[in-house]
Design a protein that fits this description.
Length: 240
Amino acid sequence: MLLAIDIGNSTTVFGLFDGKKLKKRWGEETSNLSLDKLGTVPASIHVIVSSVVPKANKIIKKKFPQAHFVTASNIKGIKIKAKKSEVGADRVVNALAAYKMYGGPAIVVDFGTATTFDVISSKGEYLGGAIAPGLALQADILHKATAKLPRLKIKDTKKLIGKTTKEAILSGLVYGYVSLVEGMVERMIETCHGMSIRNTTVIATGGFAKMIAKHSDIIDIVDQDITLNGLKLAWRIING
């Protein structure tokens, strides 16, 4: 059995694998992580972790002394062509999964607290990417930085041209973000030698992946388990 743990800024996602099969998937707010909430797990279980929250690592290490933490410096199966000390573990794990599962070239768009774009070449090289404020973060900042605009729960909308403040905000957030994703992906493909719209697989994951993909033909696949599967693949490569 393998327990894969992806520690994100907002949410920590757990995946329990029995062989190749993901048997169980659950999440916990990262700020609420504690030894008690991690429950009872057999000491014999294998544990692999990707994390972007150093404070949470202490809890995981205490609970699972056997845990292996994946980093850009120690990951195997993909070549890192970026500054390893500054690339998040989740990003290289996503890149590994994208290449092994869908081939290259590929771009992974991960909709988290921040939205990340990660580019993988046809040779299995992680070329780097981009980081943008996440959709929920943009909505929160829009409310905090203005006097009259309300804080809204982000949801899909069919109204591009809003007739109320609420409709206008939702349009700006949803369709503005669709345009951000499409523009970034198109520019990245234009920049990279050997990549084209036709031969590049664009994979979306994270909280708003389905909603944004619904409005964009540029996203080919929505895979909410890509990070967990990347951790599983990283474990298999490490252990032969």
